[in-house]
Amino acid sequence: MLTFQGKSVINGVAIGKIFIYKKGEQQVKRTKIEDTESELARFRNAQQEAIKQLQDLYESSVKSIGEASAAIFEIHQMMLQDDGFVEAIENIIETQSVNAEYAVAATSDNFYKMFSDMEDDYMRERAADVKDISERLLTVLNGKSAGMEKLSEPVIIAADDLAPSETVQLDKDKVLAFVTVHGSLNSHTAILAKTMNIPALIGTPIPLDDTVDGKPAIIDGAKGILYVEPEEEILAQMQERKKAEEEQKELLLTLRGKENITLDGRKIKLYANIGNSKDLAMVLQNDAGGIGLFRSEFLYLEKEDYPTEEEQFTVYKTVAETMAGKKVIIRTLDIGADKQADYFKLAHEENPAMGLRAIRICLTRPEVFKTQLRALFRASAYGNIAVMYPMIISVDEVRKIKEIVAEVKKELEEQHIEYGEVEQGIMIETPAAVVMSDELAKEVDFFSIGTNDLTQYTLAIDRQNPELDAFYDSHHPAILRMIQTVVDNAHKAGIWAGICGELGADTSLTQEFLKMGVDELSVSPGRILPIRKIILETDVNTL
Ligand code: PEP
Ligand code: MG
Is 188 annotated as catalytic? Predict the structure, then answer.
C-alpha cells in the first residue's frame, strides 16, 4: 500500500481505480504566412467560436452547479475579449507574419508568466485561466472539439492539474474523485469540486505513471490521504464510511430542489448557519434557501488585530455573490463571553456572559461597529444582504443602532459608494427582548431567536458548564412559550420570525415550530434536508 498526503477540498470518501488524465497538450509549430489579413480573420473566428462554447458551457453549468460557480465561464469569455490579450495575439500575427496558433501559444506563455509572477494570490490563480482559454482557442484553431475523452468506468482521476473547464466537463457518473499534483485551495477547480460535491485532493505528490495508473485506490477526504492498493483493514473501514455517506446522499437526491412546504400548503424558510465563507459549499450542497446566521465574529477571532473594512468587505461580498441573490443574514460581531479576541482588550469580568459583549461593545466602541457596518453595506451592492444585531435588550438600543446606521449610509452616499437595500433584524436571545418583542417588532424587519443564549439566560444555566447538563432542558416549556410569544408579536407587527439557535435544528420540535407559525429555521447545512423531509410530511391542521 502506498499513501500520499494532499490538501483535501471535500470530506468525502472515494473508492475506485485511478485513471491518469493527461491533457492533450497541443503541439504548436511556428509557420510563416503570406496573408496576415486572412490569418487575423481565422483567429477572430476561432475567438468567436471559443466564446460561444463558453457561453454554452455557462448555460449548462448554471443548471448543474449554480450561477456563482458557473461564473468562471463568463470570466473566461471576458478574458478572451480582453484588449491586452487580443492585441498581443494580433500583433504577433501581423508583425511576425506567423500562424494564429503560434501567436496564441506565445501570448499564452507570456501572460501565464506575467500572472504567475504576481504577488496577489487571486491574480496568480488567473495564470491557470490564461492557459485554459488559450488551449480552447488552439483546439478550435486545430478543428478538434474541446472536452474530455469518454470514460468507460467510474474512476478516480489523477492529473497534474485540472482546468476549470475540464473539471466541469467531467462526466459525474464516471468520476468518483480527483487528485491533482498542483492547484490551490483557492482555485476555481477547488471551488467547482466543492460545489459539484466530488471528493478532491490537490497538491498531492503522486507520480503520474504506472506506479498508480489503473491501481485500486481510496481517497479519505477527511484526512486528505490517497491510499493506493489499500490494505484490507483500511478498505473495510472506508467502505463503512462510504455507506453512511451514501445514505445521506440518497436523502439529498430526493429532497434537493424541493420547496419547504407542508401538506396543507404552509411554506417555511430553511436557511443555513455559517461561520465563514469556507462553509458555503455545504450550504449550496444542502440546498439552503439562504444564510440565516453568518457568525461574523469568526472573522475577528481568526485575526491578531481588528479586521479592516476591506478585509471584511471582501468576505461579505464573496458570500453575497456566491449565494447569488439568496438572502444572507450577517450578524454583527458577537465578541465577548466565550468568544474572546485579545486585541479587544476587554477587562476581566466576573461574569462575562452577562458582561460587555456583542452589541454592547459595538455601542461603546462605535468606530469598531462603523467599520463593520461600512463593509456590510458596501457588500450589499453585490447580493441580498441583511444585517442582524445580537444581544438586544431594549428599544433604545435599536434606536441607537439605527442612528449609527444612518450615519454610515450618509457617509457612503457622500463618498458616492454604492449600497443596496439592507433588511435589519435583531436576535431575540435575552428574556428582556422576548418581553419587549411587541415594541421591538415595530422597529425592525425581522426577528431571529437565539435559543442558545435565550435558554441560558432564561433558565439561569451557563451554557458552557458541562456540570449543569442535567439541569439544562432545551425543551423547557418557558422557552417554548417564549418562542410563541415572539412569533405572535412579530406577526402582529407584520414582520417574520425565525430561529437560528441550535433548537431550530431539533427535528423532534420541527412540527411544534410549524404549529407555532415560525417562519424560518436557520440550521447547520447538514440539518436542512432532514428538516425538509419532516416539513414535507406534515399537515399542520392535524397537529
Ligand atoms: C444563540 O445564542 O442561540 C445564537 C444563535 O448565537 P450564538 O450561539 O452564536 O451565541
Ligand atoms: Mg447568542
Answer: yes
Give the per-residue pLDDT at 147: 47
Active-site position among 76, 182, 188, 476: 188
Summarize pLDDT for 365-403 with one digit per residue, the tens.
999 999 999 999 999 999 999 999 999 999 999 999 999
Task: Enumerate the β-bridge partners of residue 496.
Answer: 446
| Distance, CA of 176 to CA of 451 (rounded, Å) | 40
Task: Name 159's bridge partners.
Answer: 180
Q: What is the average per-residue pLDDT within 101-108?
A: 93
Q: Quick one: cell of 471?
A: 439541569
Residue nearest to ligand 1 atom 4, measured at CA = 450
Q: What is the pLDDT of residues 222-278, one digit of tens each?
A: 899 999 999 999 999 999 999 988 887 787 778 999 999 999 999 999 999 998 887
Residue 449: CB within 6 Å of ligand 1?
no
The residue whose grid cell reads 459549499 is 281
The pairing of strands 216-220 and 290-295 is unpaired
Annotation says 500 is catalytic: yes
| Ligand 1 contact via 374 beta carbon (within 6 Å) | no
Is there a contact between 197 and 285 (Cβ–Cβ < 8 Å)?
Answer: yes
Give the Cβ contact number of residue 473 at 10 Å.
12
Closest Cα partner for 193 from 174, 217, 177?
177
